[in-house]
Amino acid sequence: MTQQSPARLAGLDKTQCETFRRDGFLHPVDVMPETEAKALRAQIEALEARKHGRLSGLTRAKPHLLLPYLWDVVHDARILDKVGSLLGPDIICIGSSVIDKPARSDGYVAWHQDATFWGLTENQGATAWLALSDVTSGSGAMQAIPGTHARQLRHLDTADDKNMLGAREAVDSQPDLSRAVWMMLKPGQMSLHHPLVLHGSGPNASDDRRLGFVIRYTSARVRQEEAPRRWCAAGTWRRSPLKSGQRRKWTRRH
Ligand SMILES: O=C(O)CCC(=O)C(=O)O
Q1: Of 228 and 139, more confident
Q2: Which of 96, 132, 201 to mutate to test the pocket of ligand 1 (most atoms within 8 A of CB)?
Q3: Which of 84, 168, 193, 203 lies at a C-alpha separation of 20 to 30 Å from 238?
Q4: Is the pLDDT of residue 110 over 50?
Q5: GO molecular function: any one (predicted)?
């Protein structure tokens, strides 16, 4: 796997791991310099320009399978080392997406738990939400409610097309919004969230788009029970033994 930054150890520290386990999410986590995130954004925008200004839904779903520069992000040790701190050395990628909220748009993401439709054998996972633009309360940052990752809640179809979720779903109960935490990010930072933590986001009222590249990782022992044939793995990784002062290498397993 290509190394993209100078040798260093880049796992989460103990406090960060404890925060994720306690709250079900963690932010902000530095991944790459702002300039690098902006260069990724520019690559996506160059592609959009060639595709009449907007990526199709098909291209935005699992785009790392189409676009080498996003494949590299999925495999980037600066992300894998941190996800590995939470999930252990064997990790699988079960999906990715480019999530876009255009400037001054009214799309929102209703309060939900990601695992609702995933059908996983266990919720040993973490979503890495990498910011490619400024993510603020005004641009529609995600919010999450600490400690809601302990159990699966019932969801319903909101029948609202402004709800950007695939099944227009929302949790079937009123979340305690007084406990909600904003997950604001600068370009190049990510948040990490558990498959069961309750989260959502509002419209983008800012003059810039809110753009994120989102990668779903689980432990490699996790299987999809309900639709095994649609299990969509881009590969699993094994972590090399840690040697003092060296960067860890991740190699692909088949
Ligand atoms: O991008 C957002 O606002 C929400 C994304 C989300 O729900 C997720 O990544 O699980």
Answers
A1: 139
A2: 201
A3: 193
A4: yes
A5: dioxygenase activity
Does the global pTM surpass 0.90? no
CA distances from 83 to 32, 40, 57 (A): 15, 21, 27
pLDDT of residue 22: 98
Q: Which atom of ligand 1 is nearest to the CA of 142?
A: 3
Q: Report residue 144 CA to chain centroid gap.
A: 13
The total number of residues shown for the chain amounts to: 254
Instruction: Give the residues surrounding ligand 1 with Cβ less than 6 Å away.
Output: 99, 109, 114, 127, 129, 142, 199, 201, 212, 214
- Helix ranges (H only) for the chain are 14-23, 34-50, 57-60, 68-74, 77-87
Q: Is residue 4 part of a domain?
A: no
Q: Which domain holds residue 160?
A: 14-253
Q: Dump pLDDT digits (tens) for 48-95.
A: 999 888 888 888 889 999 999 999 999 999 999 999 999 999 999 999
Residue 203 has pLDDT above 90, yes or no: yes
Domain membership of residue 53 (yes or no) is: yes
Which residues are registered as beta bridge partners of 136?
none
How many angstroms separate the alpha carbon of residue 200 from the centre of ligand 1?
7
Domains of the chain: total:
1
